[in-house]
Amino acid sequence: MKSLLLVEDDERISLPLVRMLQAEGFRVHHVEGGEEALVAVNDNAPDLVLLDLSLPDIDGLDVCRRLRATHPILPIVMLTARNEEVDVVVGLDAGADDYITKPFRVAELTARIRSRLRISTSLLTIDPNFVGSLRIDYAARRAWLHDEELVLAPREFDLLELFTRHEGETMRREYIMSEVWDENWWGSTRTLDTHVASLRRKLGDTSENPERIITVRGVGFRYEAG
Question: Which range marks the domain in which residue 151 is found?
Fold first, then answer.
């Protein structure tokens, strides 16, 4: 049974959510604050963290950054009422794997949780690969650009791995979503655009004049080694 840590201070959300997630077969530990969350991760070693951004003691973004620094491969899904793209991008830059805005459907949330838990469970153990000016250690999930290590959220690394393993190939948006998120993904692909935009910035690309992650209009994306 997979264990989840829910960090949410609003009982109107946390109490029914705990019951529903338990009914879906998860073991759920619930805390209300950021300090409690940091302790709970160390004490209970959850398989995934559901993290609200508005907490009474520590800002959720700071909690996310601190968890990512000490637990680089721990899946973190943000729960937030903030639906502006800038807030989402800041959250992804802080190290979150995914986000879902309130109000949300439990079916969508559980689908994203199960998808995140399935991803990258068996990585190839190989020496670092060179893809143009990028050096990538797929097993360690680390990447360097011009000898400077990139700080990538787990989902961003998943995208980078997919792009670089298919260098020069045009991949449809639906294929990328199925590989990185879920083969049965049925939601909006806007989350893909948000993650691609964040990854582009870290690679020194811009949406106006990208050199690595090329948008193929009406189809998807293509990665070109730079």
Answer: 129-223
